[in-house]
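User: I'm putting together notes for a lab meeting next week and I want to include a structural view of one of the chains we've been expressing. I don't have a solved structure, so I'd like a prediction I can at least talk through. The sequence is below, exactly as it appears in our construct file.
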Amino acid sequence: MNKVILMGRLTRDPETRYTQTNNTLVASFSLAVNRRFVRQGEERQADFINIVAWSKLGEFCSKYFKKGQQVGIIGRIQTRTWDDDQGNKHYVTEVVAEEAYFADSKRDGEANSNSFENTFGDTAPGNMGSDFEMSSSDDLPF
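Assistant: Thanks for the context. Below is the predicted structure for the 142-residue chain, given as structure tokens.
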């Protein structure tokens, strides 16, 4: 089984491009994911994980995710290799996102202009295109 669940902060805004073969949207970004334990006398360590999101999910991430925002990603690990123009072989390990979620607390969201209400009004996240709507933002669980 190949399943990854991450929560971290975006280190940069997602970059968007389109594939040459079939013009499919690809968004890429990286997450700073804090390690669980801190050694005494040291600062908390973080791992910087590259994320790739395709098609509709990539469009969603590129539109609504911004640098510094805390998000949750569910996906799978993928490795790939390629040779550059000089013949050097490159190896990459990345997470291919299958689901993406907002993970900032309501208090954090109120502190900046990218809050849930400013972005979506009263519509619940993750329900793009559905008929489900909250009656007010006070009903949200975060």
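A couple of points you could mention at the meeting. Residues 17 and 23 are 9 Å apart (CA to CA). Confidence is low (pLDDT under 50) at residues 111-138.

User: Perfect, that's what I needed.
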